[in-house]
Specification:
This protein is mainly beta and about 190 residues long. About 5% of the residues lie in helices and about 50% in strands.
C-alpha cells in the first residue's frame, strides 16, 4: 500500500488518537511538592459510575523517593512513622477513601519496618458533594522519609478535577506552593 504525501499526516493523527494510552497525562497531576529526597503530588483518574449508581472520581497520591530512601506503611513495624493524609480543606468533597498498596518488608540494622522504596501511589476514591461541579482536592500529608536517619516531612498538593457528571475527564492542575518541613503545629486530621 502506497500513501500519498497528503494522506500521511492524516494517518498519523488518526493513529495517534486511536493508539494513545488511556490514563493521566501531564495536565492530570499537580506540581511536585518536595525536594531531592522525596516529593508528593496528586494525580487524577477518571470519573466512574459505581454499581450503586453513584458517580465518583478516581485519583491518587503519588510519593516519589530518591534511591536509598524509604517511607512507611500505615503500620510501620518496629520503628517508623505512618503517613497521615488530610483532605479537610478540599472543596465539593463529601468523602475521600484512601487505599493502601501492599508494602515491602524492609530490614534495618536488626529491626523490621514496613513501607515503600522508590515510590508509591495511594489510590483515592473521591465522592463529590455535587457530581456536576468540579472538585478541588487539597492534600496536607505528614510523613517520614528515611535513609540512615528519618526526617519528618509535610507535603502539600492541590488539584482541580472536572465534575464527575460532566461529559469527559477534563482536569486542570494548580501548583501547591513550596515544599515545607513539618512545624510545631498540627492541623491535620488523619484519613
Amino acid at each position: 500500500m502506497v500513501m500519498s504525501r497528503r494522506a500521511l499526516p492524516c494517518f498519523a493523527i488518526i493513529a495517534a488518537v486511536i493508539f494513545a494510552p488511556a490514563g493521566a497525562g501531564a495536565a492530570d497531576a499537580s506540581a511536585w511538592n518536595g525536594d531531592a529526597h522525596a516529593g508528593v503530588r496528586l494525580i487524577a483518574g477518571d470519573a466512574i459510575t459505581e454499581a450503586s449508581g453513584a458517580r465518583v472520581l478516581r485519583a491518587g497520591v503519588e510519593i516519589r523517593l530518591a534511591p536509598g530512601w524509604k517511607t512507611y506503611w500505615r503500620y510501620p513495624g518496629d520503628s517508623g512513622v505512618p503517613p497521615r493524609f488530610d483532605f479537610v480543606k478540599s472543596e465539593n468533597v463529601k468523602n475521600v477513601a484512601l487505599a493502601w498498596p501492599a508494602p515491602l518488608r524492609l530490614g534495618d540494622t536488626g529491626t523490621v519496618t514496613i513501607g515503600y522504596k522508590d515510590g508509591v501511589v495511594f489510590p483515592l476514591r473521591v465522592e463529590p458533594e455535587d457530581a456536576s461541579k468540579p472538585v478541588v482536592l487539597r492534600l496536607n500529608l505528614d510523613y517520614a522519609i528515611c535513609e540512615k536517619i528519618c526526617i519528618p516531612v509535610e507535603g502539600r498538593a492541590e488539584l482541580r478535577i472536572a465534575g464527575a457528571g460532566g461529559p469527559g475527564p477534563a482536569r486542570v492542575a494548580r501548583p501547591a506552593g513550596p515544599p515545607a518541613r513539618r512545624g510545631a503545629t498540627r492541623r491535620s486530621r488523619p484519613v
